[in-house]
Design brief:
Two copies of one chain form a homodimer. In chain A, 27% of the residues lie in helices and 28% in strands. By secondary structure, chain A is an alpha/beta fold. The first copy, chain A, has one domain: Carbon-nitrogen hydrolase (Nitrilase/N-carbamoyl-D-aminoacid amidohydrolase), CATH 3.60.110.10. At the A-B interface, helix 4, helix 5 and helix 7 of A face helix 4 and helix 5 of B.
Chain lengths: 293, 293
């Protein structure tokens, strides 16, 4: 039986604890990217909104000042860096598209410095200390995979993690690895058991995307204390069988370098051929809000 | 803040190792059902195809003899039992619908002995020693929840486990608990690490259905050796946050009694309101086989 060729990819997950000053955060991100590239990383992903503090923990119109156009100041810094290092950069930014239209957007910069694609966060959360609906217009670009020089990837963002529909759609669009830049953390005053269950649910849901789609999943979270939130790190990569192949600590900055062999995708999808058996004739109601009244 | 009322439900998961003789299997199932009911179980679920050996590990036309109509001999045995014990019975059978049209069907018998509903397995596997496509016509009833006297449930079957679409659709149809009668096991000659990864993937995928839909999930597997297969038991119930609240052993028959409080569903869906944020405007391509050519 012929096997797909070996084509190893090294991912760099930059788990960071952003500071108050955006220019400092960009500078530190650049250092981490250089460090990851020096160690052979080909696809390097930063956490959600790496450039700024996690401002959506309060609703304050002044925080719209954190936004920038895309392309804009940050991509102008990162694009030459991607070209210089010949790496793919996955950078989550607060996008100002127009007055009153702001998005939570991830830009993918290719190895030649060009923009391979952008993704605008489609599912926007809003729960205590994660008041994102105030800031972010829901994305209008859908769930398309993005072609890069080193592979076809899906980029989804944080809250998208909880929606199997999103993972499925980028996988059906040919993504081999799904990246999730993330900002998830604990609120004060919860029990340890509740905190553990939340973290475990976060891991479980994403490992399941790897399993049901036969893809790699790379989640890149913030860490550290900001305001009233404790981001819990735990960035990880799961293989197409859902095996946890690498995971960062909860409570400190870390650069996680992980080797993935995309041939595992074909291997896994031959062993458990789920995509063969999807009942596309019977999924129509997935576009309904609720099926009862 | 008002809370939904407490309405505790006790589930009975009958993890069994069926024998060669169907009448013996039905007799043993009846005994387990009586035992579960005596301990207060209100919803009792048997494993996939509990009445027969796991015949799809070979393709032999004679095995169609195992099939029966629904209603038919087995429901005529179980229906009075459901009425007598005032329990809901979830029984997976090999249905003969017509010459040449056979299904892998689960019947739900209500507390008064009536048929609350049936579900015909929609996703049919076919991989080494699980040659189900030879026997089972794919279901044509869709993914509807079933109303019973003690609650609204979803019934999916085994291979359906790997498809988040199926879980989502029964949840959107109001299911509070999703039952998965199952026959999953290991082939000889795999490594321990591979076997462990398969079992863990099976658990992870289903816990994720609980999480992303905010429902209880109850998986009821066969156990024991049959022919060339070793069924791995591990039947379990996960709560709406994906917490594993009870799990059976891998290697022996077991009756698992598990209390579920459906109020946990409302509680969990308020804390993490995923259903609020589904992008139903952007899920249309879920009815496509593949999005690239």
């Amino acid at each position: 039986m012929s096997r797909p060729p070996l084509r190893n990819l090294r991912l760099g997950l930059v788990q960071s604890a952003p500071l108050a000053d955006p220019s400092e955060n960009v500078k530190r991100a650049e250092e981490s990217i250089r460090q990851a590239a020096a160690q052979g990383a080909q696809l390097i992903c930063l956490p959600e909104l790496f450039r700024t503090p996690y401002f959506p923990q309060e609703e304050t119109a002044e925080h719209f000042e954190f936004a920038e156009p895309i392309p804009g100041p940050t991509t102008e810094r990162l694009s030459p860096l991607a070209r210089e290092l010949e790496v793919v950069l996955i950078a989550s930014l607060f996008e100002r598209r127009a007055a009153g239209i702001y998005h939570n957007t991830t830009v993918v910069l290719d190895t030649d410095g060009s923009t391979a694609g952008i993704y605008r966060k489609m599912h926007i959360p809003d729960d205590p200390l994660f008041f994102e609906k105030f800031y972010f217009t829901p994305g209008d670009l859908g769930f398309d995979a993005i072609e890069t020089a080193v592979g076809r990837i899906g980029v989804l963002i944080c809250w998208d993690q909880w929606f199997p529909e999103a993972a499925r759609l980028v996988a059906l669009d040919g993504a081999e690895i799904i990246f999730y830049p993330t900002a998830i953390g604990w609120l004060d005053g919860e029990t340890e058991s509740e905190n553990a269950a939340q973290r475990e649910a976060w891991i479980t849901a994403q490992r399941a995307h790897a399993i049901s789609n036969g893809v790699f999943v790379a989640a890149v979270n913030r860490t550290g204390r900001e305001g009233k939130l404790s981001f819990f790190g735990s960035s990880f990569v799961a293989d197409p069988q859902g095996r946890m192949i690498a995971q960062a600590a909860m409570d400190r900055e870390e650069l996680l370098l992980v080797d993935c062999n995309p041939a595992r995708i074909e291997q896994e999808r031959r062993a458990w051929p789920f995509l063969r058996d999807r009942r596309i004739d019977a999924y129509g109601d997935l576009t309904r809000r609720y099926r009862r009244g």
